[in-house]
């Protein structure tokens, strides 16, 4: 049973089946050392070990535990011991090598005190004092050869030492020993001579006592204040007591409790049997500590953690700062590196990468570079930056991706509220005008405005205002389809009605300049058929668009931090397919408005149509570039579309119906048939003479079936015109109504045209 052998080889039961020890194995010491490295959060250390069984086996165990913990070894240096005595240059080279790994400031030394002492001298010679933080084995911790006269170089060192407590009463016992009362110990006289530097009378010659000039009396006394006792005496006493308890237990069981002396059954002792009794001893030793062997015959894995520190300037001490037991550290506190720098330095090859930074390994797993992930990348592992999917962004620490809130135009958005309020007011205004037109359906003003087309126009305006509420719906298959079909339909209804009106006016007055024959297709029914045909073409376009490109919602990403839910056709210029035909109608209506601008003032509805189309063109010229410039924000694009559609409807409502509503509501006295009479004076040129005839004045004739005359051809011959009496002239003259075009159809078919 050994009390001081720590080599890991001795734990091999196959090679040393009868070897036991009360001191722990170096395997446990290596584990304690690596736990200290972990405590400092070091990941990059150097290891120095001596060339001996103790050093090599210790290094092997340290290396194994470092790898298990993912701690890298920057350098390994071997101190010569068994193969010879190294020179100072050898130690200097080791220090230089350690200095090259400047980030590895933590150094593990698994060696004996003499070799460590020489290494510390080299540290001083190479100016590396204070550069390294040492973690040492029990082979040199608290041993004078390692630190005496080298305190500055060793300062801050942390070593492990098998945990042993003072054997009670042994110090007092030893201090009272003399050569006279301790003659059983043959080495005690030699110790006495060495301690007091004298030669004891009658002692044997030694290489040392021949140099002593004084004679020992044997009455000298050892000073208790300067006496330093071996700290690990507990292992000696535990080894002795282990044998005592094992033999005692074996004797009781084999010989019987009452048998005195060694019985025949124990003579000779069976070694295998005795080993089993040793492995099962369980007692409290002389140090008051409980002891029992581990299953492999090693002593309990208990260590004391020592720190060599400077308590004040020039004063150093080894202080217990913690313990290691059963594979873990505990009560570790009050560690100190240097007097002016209490914290031990960091020993890492590379700094820990910050949040959002990927680790790219270099030569070893402990050395790396850090690369910051881009704005939209996250870290699925610490070694890789990866893009988040579109519509997702990394969280704050970039460990995963989180979905960007889905954006679409909602009813509670400010833009949507404004558009809906505007449209709601427009719907109320349209409803008010519609009710008024129905109420005064048979009045001249309503009749003169073309009742049928007016109601078609009002219906189209109502659809325009209603489109806002469809456009702000959450994108679905239904809402997207309604948008595709509705944006073209509502405008087509409006502008087909206006186009039919302007075309009818233009054809009537163009025909009036050439012939007295009535133009075709100017009756109300014909006008409705023409209007319906124009709208039907838009319906065909809308149906084909839906069939060829079915409506559906989709996710749209204008940029990497965008996540919009939109209708598929809201992206790009696809909605312009629905607007193309209405734009053509607007252009044609505008052309007709320009063509009819010189119609007599009495037919002032053409003037209002012109105002409507000019203003509409301005709105659309502004809308189209805004539409294409808001491709990045579909919400804004939809809101712009809502306002543009409502503005176009408002222009048509105000310009086309305000004058009529003004007469209907505030000047009912003018809303009678006689107020529509007016005088139109024209000068005609005789085709036969080429001279201008006198002006012909046409007045209304109440007795006629018709109310208005659009076209009259005066007499071409001067002789005929001269024969006309004033009454006849009055009789044959016809006036032109200011508004009513419908009644013109009857006059154009009449044969009562004076020549």
From TrEMBL:
Pfam families: 7tm_3, ANF_receptor. Residues 1-308 form the Receptor ligand binding region domain. CDD domains: 7tmC_mGluRs. Keywords: Cell membrane, G-protein coupled receptor, Glycoprotein, Membrane, Receptor, Transducer, Transmembrane, Transmembrane helix. The chain crosses the membrane at residues 415-441, 453-473, 485-506, 527-548, 579-596, 608-628, 634-657. Its main location: membrane. Residues 718-741 are annotated as: Disordered. It is found in: Cell membrane. Residues 719-741 have a biased composition (Polar residues). Residues 409-660 form the G-protein coupled receptors family 3 profile domain. It comes from the Eukaryota. It is a multi-pass membrane protein. InterPro entries: ANF_lig-bd_rcpt, GPCR_3, GPCR_3_9-Cys_sf, GPCR_3_C, GPCR_3_CS, GPCR_3_mtglu_rcpt, mGluR, Peripla_BP_I. Belongs to the G-protein coupled receptor 3 family. PANTHER family: METABOTROPIC GLUTAMATE RECEPTOR. This is GRM-like protein. It comes from Mya arenaria.
